[in-house]
Design goal:
The protein is α+β, with helices and mostly antiparallel strands and 266 residues long. It contains 7 helices and 14 strands. The protein is 35% helix and 26% strand.
Length: 266
């Protein structure tokens, strides 16, 4: 399987559908928003984008199933496309950057291709297994900051699952006091890509889905970073929680998260 070729094909799809999203943003009306759940928004742009992506992915010569956010098609196989057609929908409907398309190819639980197209900034991040990570075709790498005290951290705020809000707020308090700051961009796929290219140095969030992190996680690891769950294990893809770092602050950052979110104390 030619992963580089598949990556380039996905990039073409992301750019094409991204243009549709960009054009729709100009004329988008908030009345077109639908409510999936508490603070969980969706629009015709999400749904149409997903249909376009699924249709175009079906033409790539991979016998793959689909794990997609808006349930356009649901079928799991040995290989699976994992798709978020518009990560950062709340940002999109309010006209706030950032929002992105995220497309990954998974094989038996391992991500082997990942593309994230941040539409509002026209930045396309990509990676395939053992092939390095790229931004608009140029190689990228995680930052070399070695201390938590000199790092910038990204996270996502819970929007409806507040069961772990106490350890989350405790973690925020500690990070506010001991780092250069905390950023909440509003799209996990973008958070991970910003880590991959050195704009932030670590990222953590809970209550995420596979389509939020699949593509971005591969881009992080191919850029030299690390990814794990809150127990420092490998259940980050479907386990609804993730820690990602630039590798240099890995031990310090992971210890902070693991201590505060100790599952025995939940």
């Amino acid at each position: 399987m030619d992963l580089k070729l598949i990556t380039n094909q996905i990039i073409e799809i992301a750019l094409e559908v991204g243009q549709f999203i960009r054009e729709e943003r100009i004329k988008f009306n908030y009345q077109d928003v639908e409510i999936k759940g508490l603070n969980d928004l969706v629009s015709y742009v999400d749904k149409t984008s997903e249909k376009l992506i699924v249709e175009k992915l079906s033409k790539i010569k991979v016998d793959a199933g689909y794990i997609v956010e808006e349930n356009t098609l649901s079928e799991k196989k040995e290989y699976n496309w994992i798709v978020d057609p518009l990560d950062g929908t709340t940002n999109f409907v309010h006209g706030v950057p950032s929002y992105a398309i995220s497309i990954a190819l998974e094989f038996n639980g391992k991500i082997i291709v990942g593309v994230v197209y941040e539409v509002s900034r026209n930045e396309c991040f990509s990676a395939f297994l053992n092939g390095g990570a790229f931004l608009n075709g140029q190689p990228i790498h995680v930052s070399k900051r070695k201390q938590l005290s000199e790092s910038l951290i990204a996270t996502g705020f819970p929007i409806y699952n507040f069961t772990r809000i106490t350890p989350f707020l405790k973690t925020l308090e500690q990070l506010m006091k001991t780092t250069h700051g905390v950023r909440r961009i509003g799209a996990a796929a973008v958070d991970l890509c910003y880590l991959a290219c050195g704009r932030v140095d670590a990222f953590f969030e809970y209550n995420l889905n596979a389509w939020d992190v699949a593509a971005g996680s591969l881009i992080v690891t191919e850029a030299g970073g690390t990814v794990c769950d809150f127990n420092l294990g490998s259940n980050w893809l479907f386990g609804k929680e993730i820690i990602a770092t630039n590798n240099y602050i890995k031990t310090e950052f992971e210890l902070l998260i693991q201590t505060n979110f100790n599952k025995k104390a939940d």
